[in-house]
Amino acid sequence: MSTWPALHTLARLAPSKRPRIAVVLGSGWGELTNHLKEAVQITYSELPGFPQATVAGHSGVLWLGQLGENEVAVMSGRKHGYETGEVDGMKVPLQVLQALGCEVLVQTNAAGSLRHDLPPQSLMVINDHINLPQRSPLVGEIGTERFVGMVDAYDPSLRQLAHRVATDQGVALQEGVYVWAFGPQFETPAEIRVFRQIGGDAVGMSTVPETILARHAGLRVLALSLITNMGAGLSNEQLSHAHTLSQASSASAAASAFLAALIAQIELPLQKQAHDCNTYFRAQPLAHRLERQRPFGPVLPGPHQPQRRGHRSRHCPAVRAGTKPVRPGGCRVRLAAPGGLCPATASGAHCGRRRGQLSGWGL
Q: Does residue 216 carry a catalytic annotation?
């Protein structure tokens, strides 16, 4: 599904928002939204391609706001593989958030513990995962980019930052390997014993597909688990979703406060002047980037708009400035932002795209 409908809705409802950090909230982490400043709420039902909330604890709202100096896009709820049998339910939302300008994905979840020293209401930062079902949201993608390396899928520098913030906040934060079980049923005691033997520290029914999608898109990933129960056979607990939500609710305030402090301290690189059309478009407010529709035709799916050779359209910066096109056919960027020229055209540099090639990053 195209990202365009959701992006146009966001340009209309939140034209000035430029988030650089995306956050996916799992069960028990919903109070993070109480820490947002200048927040705008948009329900998933208004955003084509976003999942409809079918699981208790997932409200289905996109929040755009600020934590510290960082602008964030917070997804209150996710799509799980067990809801439909497909594991790419978060593909469009993550593509949309990347197109908005997000460079980091912070994920949260509720999980079961596989260790006796990791009791309920503990926090764990994920350092690796085990894709137990061996399902991938990249099935069907084309090109060599689908062969994504998963070493350090959970960014080491972000994990180190999480530990520093935890120390400053007086929060006990552990680290471990997350096992993705497909669900929706809970695991058997025998399965829990196997998960422990293969190196797992916590088990849950989410997070891994989103991590794969994020790494495919080039986003850095940080993931945190809120432990809500011991794995089957490790305690006398009677496992149920209601029990999970109850435990998550008890720890929600403290976990969300820690998460807010952590996200506020994520340092992002300064947005340098771009030397290619895609980077320049990312630096513009969404409303500017989407103002590319001709009055007589539909929007094409990319920032490079095909033009006839020598066509003196106001939408072609090279021709509009009266300069010689960088390549035959002219620069195909249609730009509504003030200033007119993208840096690649203004400097006379080649932006690296072949004639007629469209953008691959969603806008």
A: no
